[in-house]
Amino acid sequence: MSTNETQPHDDNPASRTTVGLQGQGLNTYRRWVNAVVSSPRLPMTDRLVAVTLAGYADSRMESADPGRKRIAEDLGVSVSTVKRALKVLISSGWIEKTHEGRISLDREQCDAYRLLLPTAAALSVSEEGK
Prior knowledge:
Blueprint: E1 5-6, E2 18-20, H1 25-37, H2 44-55, H3 68-75, H4 79-91, E3 95-99, E4 112-118, H5 119-128
Antiparallel strand pairs: 1-2, 2-4, 3-4
């Protein structure tokens, strides 16, 4: 599996090295979802937000941009809960914000994210695939 190294936008040493999933296909998507769901460090709400966000990812897993309001509606939680969960997912290296959305008079542009694996999770996923 080819990997893309990236640096998240925070100063959390535990999440400084991540592995991008771009173009890796459905099998890697499933492993990513399994890694998120089984992550003991993520609260359940954050896991649900991550899996919901992943459901909106494009086929190359480079962009997911459903918007916080859409995720909140899908999960039946508040937009502030989704916003907090996205911050946790970014700071822990599970996702990276790739586009900052804006609100204009006629429509809202949503933030866009790409799926990543924190290094420890990447190691366990690659071991699982052997």
